[in-house]
Amino acid sequence: MSDVPPTVPVLDHDEIHIWRARWSGGAGEIAFASLLTGYAGSGARPIERGEHGKPRFPPPFDTLGFNWSHSGDTAVLAVGRGPAGFEVGVDVETVRPRARALELAKRFFAPGETAMLEALPEAERLGGFLTLWTAKEAVLKAHGGGLSYGLHRVSFRLSALGAVPDRFDGDVGPASTWCVRPLDQGEGLVSAVAWRGHERSVRVFTFPL
Questions:
Q1: Number of independent structural domains in the chain
Q2: CATH number where 38 lies
Q3: DSSP-derived secondary structure letter, 163
Q4: Which of 190, 132, 129 is nearest to 156 (CA)?
Q5: CB atoms within 10 A of CB 86
Q6: What does the DSSP assignment read for 144-190?
Q7: pLDDT along the chain (209 residues), means of 10
Q8: Would you say residue 2 lies in a domain?
Q9: pTM of the entire predicted model
Q10: How many Å apart are CA 106 and CA 95, to the nearest integer?
Q11: Range of the domain at 42
């Protein structure tokens, strides 16, 4: 991976930027640190941790929301600008056999989601499970509560466009205030990004190797 950070593109309030990088050997953390410095500016204060450990910039730099995820050797960073406290969440998962996927859904998902998975042909069930999982993780990471908030408390419907927000309980709701988008990271990966607020375009970049 190059030691020279890429030129950070202009990020306006109608966009979410997605960066993909290699994760192994700390490469992803180094790449994302240089990108976040570029987006925030050299005068930004050091990143701090929220109540549940989510990284964020302190005020007045908290109009820049960011989040990252990695699976295997792939790392994904999501960045967006908004009002003070703006947050974005992202999740990526490697497609691999998960014999207990339906069992996990019955234990942690909303009953309606489990019923949707059970109704799918067996060949499509893993894809459906990962589509729901990544959407849930993206929302809960943006919210800041993480998995401890409860996967069943953010419920989705499966559609041809991915996971559609259906019912969100507690202070993460209502579901209608959220945008959740699947990300095409290539074969073998399932990914989603989520943010609360208006529709935005999603631009995808690759950190130079």
A1: 1
A2: 3.90.470.20
A3: E
A4: 132
A5: 19
A6: T-GGGG-GGGEEEEEETTEEEEEEE-GGG--GGGEEEEEE---TTEE
A7: 64 97 86 92 84 85 95 95 96 92 96 97 95 98 92 96 96 97 94 97 90
A8: no
A9: 0.93
A10: 20
A11: 15-206
